[in-house]
Design a protein that fits this description.
The chain has 310 residues and is an all-alpha fold. It has twelve helices and no strands. The protein has one domain. Helix 4 packs across helix 6, helix 5 packs parallel to helix 12 and helix 10 crosses helix 12. Keywords: Membrane, Transmembrane, Transmembrane helix.
C-alpha cells in the first residue's frame, strides 16, 4: 500500500527546517521593514482605495469556484454543517500551510467536521479545491502582471524556467506511472507518490503566476503596487496549502520560487523575496488559527442551542 506520509525521521527534519526558516524569515523581514520604515509609510500613504478593493475582488473571484464546489460537497455529504461553518472552514483551508500553526488548525478543522462524519480524504478534497481556486486567481492577476512587467524590458528567463519546471514534473510523473519500479523506490524512501498530471500542471502554472506577482511587487511603483502587494500576500498563503496535504512536495514551491527569481534578480534580492514569502505564510497561519477558533465557537453555540431547545 502506498504511504501518504513521509517517514518519521524525514518529517522531524522537515519540521525543524521549517521552524528555522520561519524564525530566520521573521528576523530578516523585521530588519528589512525597520530599515525602510520611512519609505514603507510613504508607500502606504499612496495606496489607493480603489486599487485595494480591485485586488481583493480579484482574489474573491478566484476563490469562488472552490467555494461553490465545497458547498455542493457539504450539501451532499455533510448536511449537518451550516453554510456559514462551511464557508469559514473553506477560508481556513485557503490560508493554511504545513507548519506547526497550520497543522494545529488542520486538527481543529478535522475535529469539527469529524462530528458530521467527514473523513481525511474529504479534507484533502477541500485543500486541493482551494489550491485550484488559488491557481485561477493567480491566472487572473499574476500572469497578466508578469507579462506586462516583461514587456517593459524585464528579463523573460523566469517564464522559460517556469515552463521547464512544469515539464520536469510531468516527465517525472509520467515515468513513475509507466515504470512501477520508480514508484516503488519512491514510496520505499518514505515519500508519497508524485502529483497527478492535472494537479501538477495546474499548481505549477499557478506558481508561475504567483512568481509574476512577486516580481511585480518588487519592481512596481509605490502607488500602483497595492494590487500586487495584497495579491502576493493572499496567493502566498493559498498556494502553500497545495503542499500542506502532499508532504513529498514540501519546499518545492519555495525552491521553485527562489530558482526562478535567481534568473532575474540578484541573489540577495531573490533570497529576501523568498524569505518574505515565508513570513507571509506565517501570517496565514495566524489567520487560519483565528478562523478555526471562530468555527469552533459557532459550533459550540449551535450545540448549546440545540441542547436547550431539546
Amino acid at each position: 500500500m502506498i504511504r501518504l506520509t513521509t517517514g518519521p525521521r524525514l518529517k522531524n527534519v522537515l519540521t525543524v527546517l521549517r521552524w528555522a526558516l520561519n524564525i530566520v524569515a521573521l528576523i530578516c523581514i523585521g530588519m528589512y521593514f525597520f530599515e525602510y520604515r520611512t519609505a514603507i509609510r510613504q508607500a502606504a500613504a499612496e495606496f489607493e482605495t480603489q486599487t485595494i478593493l480591485a485586488a481583493m475582488a480579484t482574489i474573491v473571484i478566484g476563490l469562488l469556484p472552490g467555494a461553490w464546489a465545497w458547498q455542493r460537497l457539504c450539501a451532499r455529504r455533510l448536511p449537518g454543517v451550516t453554510p456559514l461553518q462551511g464557508i469559514l472552514v473553506y477560508l481556513r483551508s485557503a490560508v493554511g500551510k504545513y507548519t506547526p500553526g497550520g497543522v494545529l488548525t488542520f486538527v481543529v478543522q478535522q475535529r469539527l467536521l469529524g462530528r458530521h462524519g467527514s473523513s481525511p480524504a474529504m479534507l484533502v478534497q477541500i485543500f486541493v479545491g482551494a489550491a485550484l481556486a488559488g491557481c485561477l486567481s493567480a491566472g487572473l492577476l499574476g500572469l497578466p502582471a508578469a507579462f506586462a512587467l516583461a514587456e517593459d524590458g524585464s528579463d523573460k528567463r523566469w517564464i522559460v524556467a517556469g515552463c521547464l519546471l512544469v515539464g520536469l514534473v510531468l516527465i517525472l510523473g509520467y515515468r513513475a506511472r509507466r515504470r512501477p519500479i520508480v514508484l516503488k523506490l519512491w514510496t520505499r524512501a518514505g515519500l508519497p507518490p508524485p502529483l497527478p498530471f492535472a494537479q501538477a500542471t495546474l499548481l505549477l502554472a499557478g506558481a508561475a503566476g504567483l512568481t509574476g506577482v512577486h516580481l511585480a511587487v518588487l519592481g512596481g511603483d509605490t502607488g500602483g503596487g497595492a494590487v500586487f502587494l495584497i495579491s502576493a500576500y493572499a496567493l502566498s498563503t493559498i498556494f502553500g496549502l497545495a503542499f500542506a496535504v502532499l508532504p513529498g512536495a514540501v519546499g518545492v514551491r519555495d525552491g521553485a520560487l527562489l530558482f526562478i527569481l535567481a534568473t532575474q534578480l540578484a541573489p540577495a534580492d531573490a533570497a529576501m523575496l523568498a524569505l518574505l514569502s515565508r513570513a507571509l505564510i506565517v501570517a496565514g497561519d495566524v489567520i487560519g488559527a483565528s478562523l478555526s477558533a471562530l468555527v469552533l465557537r459557532l459550533t459550540r453555540s449551535t450545540l448549546h442551542l440545540e441542547r436547550n431547545t431539546s
